Amino acid sequence: MTNNTNDVPLYVDLHKKHIRALEKNKESFSYWAIEHLRVSGVYWGIGAMDLMNALGEMDREEIISYILSCKHPNGGFGGNVGHDAHLLYTLSAVQVMAILNALDRLDIDSIVKFVSSLQNEDGSFQGDEWGEIDTRFSYCAVCCLAILGRKDAIDTQKAAEYVLKCRNFDGGFGCTPGAESHAGQIFTCVAALSILGQLDKIDADLLGFWLCERQLDCGGLNGRPEKLEDVCYSWWVLSALAILKRLHWINLDKLKSFILQCQDDDNGGIADRPGDVADVFHTFFGLCGLSFCGYPGLKAIDPTYALCADTIQRLGL
Amino acid sequence: RKRKKMEEGKRLFDGLNACFDKDPLIDELGFILSASDFGADEKDGFIANSEHKLGITYWCIPIIQKFCHPLFMMLKHRLIDSHSPRISLWSQFNQQDQNLLILFFQTTRILLLINSDCYSAFNARKWMLTVEENSKENGEEGKNLLNFDTELRFLNLLLTKHPKSGEVWVHRRWILNRWKLRGNSLDSIWRQDVEICTRVSVIYPKNYHAWNHRAWILKQVNSQKRCLEDLGMMNDWCRRNLSDHCGFHHRKTILLQLFNLQISMSEQVEGEDVGEIWKREFFFVEKLIILYPGHESPWSYRRFLSYYSLHWYTFNDQWRRKCKGDPFRFSSVTKGEDHWKEENFVKFLVKLDLNNWISNEFTESVEWNLNREMEFTLHCILDEGAEKYEKQSKFASMYRIWLIQTVLGMLKKNTEPDSAETKEKILLFEECRNTIESLTKNLSVSQQMVDELMRKNDYSFLPIE
Fold first, then answer.
1. Cβ of B452 and A249 within 8 Å?
2. ipTM for the predicted complex
3. Which residue, A62, A123, B81, B330, has fewest beta-carbon neighbours within 10 Å?
4. Which residue has the higher pLDDT, A178 or B312?
5. A220 CB contacts (<8 Å, ≥6 apart)?
6. How many beta-carbon contacts under 8 Å exist across A and B?
7. Mean pLDDT over all residues of chain B?
């Protein structure tokens, strides 16, 4: 990987500052806009700190207490204290506990029961008791159970079959059968199939081809044809390509330069594109993208589980 | 001081809810910097006018939320979560709890106006609607806080301010599914929902959730009539929104549905034959590509059309019987010479009526086959006179690479891989592949990717199913 001397550096300290400040910002408009998914916000924040080798700067016990306070009697986790149980936040909760090496603090059986209860006969997963189906939920279920070592609790064959039903002629995947191919959904489906041991059912060349077309002249990636570049696709596209062993099909140097330009050099954090307001979501995924590009000083990230490689090793995945 | 803030929060909360009591037909929501800008009393925190528009000031939002959010959570716990099993009839509540239901409903309304992804508030409404129905069926008096119509209206309102919200559509589908389960037909809702999807797509283009919902409702009604109606609406949309990949994807959804409808019915359906529609679609997209060069979405759509034409010719008897010629027909590719018969196309364009995009003249006189595809893409790659030439050339090159890989994959997977005919075709396409490098221009994708693909012998891009 060449180092373009025109690149701005990675403002690690500013990003750490940005993430630590999120704890305190509980009164603002922007807090209320996303308070329902704060558990995922914690995952993105912790994940980012871990990538920057700064996990020790966070208050481990406080975070564990917070996560546990979002637990429901049925085993699922809500997006914030009081919010209803949902697969999305159950996965985020488990991921946080995995990073903090605190899985022993969880009632694993109850989580497994919650997750497996959401699988339908056709193998699909609903997000919660109210029934919405989406391939993202397939990934949440499968990834969560894999981290807990309990994939056996669901019908893995049917789970894979349903995901494959959502494959389109272009090799991509949508949220439901026939839905438009979307890089985010593609990541969830490819990662799910990887965990389920059915990657061979994917035409890696065809899908790799589609994914490569996401790279624009500016070096950034988009999620679908003719959409704008967005830093979060540095994760969705790159991780899918990494799982398909075609990461080298993307121009990583150009992407790296693009991500670095999306940093907020005043207050820290990374935005979706240069000049926009930073947030923890894009900060995490921007750092993930830089990690894939081999940026020095960042930990390696696993493309399937979105956890650092050392966590994966510890879990034996 | 904290109590003062809570009092102010309650005042704002009550005021906002009163708007809805006064005007149940509020249909547009916005966030504003200042209420006094619109002639209202600034301390009200919002403005509601006689045209059913509601504006909430940014400054009052954190104050309302600090009051409303804990109240919602407290009531949710008391009325829903603390009961195991859940309450399913209003009569199961004591009088004190029954009196809290209106307040609970109001908290869900405010939370969603401000953050329509607040899924727990939607869940609470689902619960309330369920209990309301159960209670009425049980002969009890309902609370009449909400019903299908009011929910749909509320969702439409939320979309005016939160067009990107995913949870709004999730709730909408739950409502519609329930409505369907009670014996109603979604066909009567179809047009209304399509209108909402269109409106939202105008506010926030390439809106994945809105278009996904449009596809969902079309699948629910599953009729050739509605498919054709939708396709008709899409003609205008696609012409005006050439960069909208969602719009072109919706055409794919409609076409696949039409195909499935036709093959699932043994006799010829009334109206259009899907093979004819397919042919017209080719020329529809070709017109767009030629008239408005440099847009990726029409090229992406062309891939879809080519893929399924070849796929069904290979694997579907019904389709193959309808085809007039062999779409795999391919004689040769000559490098550097422009065989694309632009004069024919120009002649057609001169006669083109832009108000009637679906015209039979061109479709009947020209046959679709691989030969023509290769010539057409060559023309687009080399035509430096076209506006946005570089982009057009790039998309044409990518299409050409994709097409060759796809054809090789299909030839490999077809029923007679060893026939002399198939072998000859494979040879011709392999030769084609070898000339790719000199023809691919302006690609921003990694050259390494193209090189790797073109040298493989186990042609991937295999057909699905």
1. yes
2. 0.96
3. A62
4. A178
5. A229, A230, A231, A233, A234, A255, A258, A259, A273
6. 136
7. 86
